């Protein structure tokens, strides 16, 4: 997705899919969503309702890289693997 930022510059948004622990309870899912959503460059974080082990993260590559996002998820002591993305 391409959008305009506040300075009318074209910015690209990318969505990655991260595989995360299948047995993560709702409280810990909310914690992951909350912490990641506060990171500069990340626009949205959402677990799939039908496949609760998949986490969709939309971000701007101008501000953060997918490997850094994956590292953040792993820093919460969860097994995480990039499924779709760069």
Can you give a write-up of this model?
The protein contains two helices and six strands. The chain has 86 residues and is of the alpha+beta class. The strands form two sheets. The chain has a four-stranded antiparallel sheet with strand order 4-5-3-6, covered by helices on one side. Strands 1-2 form a two-stranded antiparallel sheet. A hairpin with a 5-residue loop joins β1 and β2. The chain is globular, with a radius of gyration of 13 Å. The model has no long low-confidence stretch (mean pLDDT 86).
Sum up the overall morphology in one term. globular
Biggest sheet overview: 4 strands, antiparallel
Low-confidence stretches: none
Strand line-up in the sheet with most strands = 4-5-3-6
Q: If you compute it from the alpha carbons, what radius of gyration comes out, rounded to the nearest whole angstrom? A: 13 Å
Q: Quote the average pLDDT.
A: 86
Distance between the termini: 15 Å
- Measured as a percent range, the helix fraction is 25-40%
Residues in β-strands, percent = 25-35%
Protein topology:
Blueprint lengths: L1 E3 L5 E3 L1 E7 L5 H12 L4 E6 L6 E6 L6 H10 L4 E5 L2
Antiparallel strand pairs: 1-2, 3-5, 3-6, 4-5
Keywords:
alpha+beta; 6 strands; four-stranded antiparallel β-sheet; globular; 86 residues
Short description:
This protein has 86 residues and is α+β, with helices and mostly antiparallel strands. 26% of the residues lie in helices and 35% in strands.
